[in-house]
Amino acid sequence: MNEAISLIGAFSAGLLGGVHCVGMCGGIVGALSIASPGARPAARLPMLFSYNSGRLLSYGVAGGLFGALGQLSLPLQQVQLMQSVLAVVAGIMMLLLGLYIGGWSRVLRHVEIVGGYFWRLIEPLGRGLLPVRNPLQGLLLGMLWGWLPCGLVYSMLIWALASGSAINGALLLLAFGVGTLPNLLATGLFANRFVSFVQQPRMRTVAGLMLIAFGVYTLSRAVF
């Protein structure tokens, strides 16, 4: 049951964090849509699905690695204690993310800046795949995009670290990735109209408050 609740929670975090995803990745999705053949939104779907499939694949790999790291880094008798500690950290990260998306704190922005140093090593690889002309290129570019520095993803990776196994960590990140799909697919299909809607202060406030509530729930599960 705990695993099911965690997967639902990760999916919800991806869905609610869509405001942040659109802000971080909207330009990338927009560029892909321009490169996609056909003027109608439906004509862009194959490219968008290949792109996002690559992104989810990277999330699953990262989640599996962090889950395995959490499983192997401690003696068995200390695993449960460390999982509780990391669950508290994950809850705090969700609180910070809610504050960040709502525009009330920029602490996570500094975390993303640190991750940006790693991204600079990967980003040049993506330039060789532009412009994207076929789904295979979209898949490969999406796999690179999955490593874009993002406070929301980092929160999920900490959660994966506390998940207890590589499989649980991978499933957690995949559930999160699926939760981000509606917002990013809508961005690719409807471009500026959807981005403008999602980026409204009211939408950011609602998403921020819901993520804060989710962070409080995560903390309560870890503490009680």
TrEMBL record:
Keywords: Membrane, Transmembrane, Transmembrane helix. The chain crosses the membrane at residues 6-35, 56-74, 80-101, 139-161, 167-191, 203-220. Residues 10-217 form the Urease accessory protein UreH-like transmembrane domain. This is Urease accessory protein UreH-like transmembrane domain-containing protein. It comes from Solemya velum gill symbiont.
